[in-house]
Q: What sequence folds into this?
């Protein structure tokens, strides 16, 4: 039995699905959101650090009530080396629960409705859920990294899922306005410490074995604050097809994640603006085109950097890290929270970087297969 005949269905009431819902509503559409959980914003699967662009660059206002702390820089470590980055008010620490809940205000959301499968029928889609069947002319998968929409409709993707795990701890850090990032392997294996600013710290990791990684990190750093919450989630890294007939993917479902920091909120919300415009124009291909024009090049460059560093031996990584540490002022000047390739280009174009590039190329030459694979990953 079809118990709803609304035309636009968004699967997933995360920040991206909700922001898209708000944009569409403002344009006069009447989207319905299907959400597997009983409320928005829970469970939390995020470290909640966003650049100021998430508040300043969005078309619709985003909840400033969700801001818990303001960050002025970072301490970055790799092996026994470390450097400090100072960038006043570079980022905010948000409560994802408040952030998501405020984005969902006034939207039509069917809770406790888990999408199970989608069938293509005549001019639309039949969505089978734990709460009955729904018909959609246009179906939008904003259903996160393990997207059921992506799987049911067989969108093509080269994504790889990474595992994230995080504790909220009762403890204080020496600096309440600074995050700490500890790399084991840039940028696929690292641990973070983020002060919420209220005697609570978010300690998380991205790792193949996050539980062991966090345990070892806490032992090594003598961290023994009381654990008050545990969160876990997946991070999709790669690229993905965005449009297939009248079905679309967005946010984590579409791998719209920054490959270097694994942050996805900014990209997902900017993609929502592109998609809302394309829906208004009744031309879904515009969404794909605008995403490519504005973000794809940056994502591909960062994917290549990530791939190269993932495959570099530690001695070369140490050499690169030392070079970055020696040029912190350049990183502070050129660094952009949302656009990471700008700082890489400014480092590469600096003549002081040439010996480091030489070491990197020598590292790559040791494996011709790896060199070839890197070449084919060059953005075109
Ligand atoms: C440990 C960790 C730390 C992170 N830290 C940061 C960070 O500091 N900054 C940052 O920018 N990003 C961070 N991210 C990434 C960020 O959380 C995501 O990019 C962001 O949540 C993506 O939003 P979304 O709306 O696309 O997907 P999601 O937030 O995953 O929302 C998807 C929604 O769809 C629902 N859903 C899923 N499947 C179904 C289904 N079959 N039927 C119905 N509903 C469904 C889910 O319940 C959820 O509500 C982190 C991720 C992890 C795992």
A:
């Amino acid at each position: 039995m079809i118990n709803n005949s609304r035309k636009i269905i968004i699967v997933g009431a995360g920040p991206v699905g909700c922001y898209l819902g708000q944009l569409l509503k403002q344009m006069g559409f009447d989207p319905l959101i299907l959400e597997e959980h009983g409320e928005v914003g829970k469970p939390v699967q995020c470290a909640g650090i966003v650049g100021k662009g998430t508040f300043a660059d969005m078309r619709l206002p985003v909840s400033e009530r969700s801001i818990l702390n303001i960050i002025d820089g970072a301490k970055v470590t790799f092996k026994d080396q470390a450097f400090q980055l100072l960038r006043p008010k570079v980022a905010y620490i948000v409560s994802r629960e408040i952030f998501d809940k405020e984005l969902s205000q006034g939207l039509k959301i069917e809770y406790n409705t888990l999408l199970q499968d989608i069938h293509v029928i005549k001019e639309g889609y039949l969505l089978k859920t734990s709460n009955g069947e729904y018909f959609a002319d246009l179906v939008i998968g904003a259903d996160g990294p393990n997207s059921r929409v992506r799987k049911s409709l067989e969108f093509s993707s080269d994504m790889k899922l990474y595992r994230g795990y995080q504790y909220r701890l009762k403890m204080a850090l020496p600096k309440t306005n600074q995050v700490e990032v500890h790399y084991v392997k840039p940028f696929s294996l690292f641990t973070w410490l983020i002060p919420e600013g209220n005697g609570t710290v978010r300690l998380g990791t991205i790792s193949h074995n996050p539980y062991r990684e966090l345990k070892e990190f806490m032992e090594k750093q003598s961290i023994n604050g009381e654990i008050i919450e545990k969160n876990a989630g997946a991070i999709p890294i790669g690229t993905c097809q965005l449009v297939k007939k009248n079905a679309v993917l967005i946010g984590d479902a579409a791998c719209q994640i920054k490959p270097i920091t694994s942050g996805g909120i900014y990209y997902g919300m900017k993609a929502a603006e592109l998609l809302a415009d394309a829906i208004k124009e009744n031309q879904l291909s515009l969404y794909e085109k605008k995403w490519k024009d504005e973000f794809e090049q940056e994502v591909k460059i960062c994917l290549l950097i990530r791939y190269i560093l993932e495959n570099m031996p530690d001695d070369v990584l140490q050499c690169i890290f030392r070079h970055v540490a020696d040029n912190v002022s350049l990183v502070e000047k050129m660094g952009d929270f949302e656009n990471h390739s700008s700082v890489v280009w400014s480092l590469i174009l600096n003549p002081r970087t040439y010996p480091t590039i030489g070491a990197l190329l020598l590292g790559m030459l040791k494996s011709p297969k790896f060199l070839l694979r890197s070449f084919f990953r060059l953005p075109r």
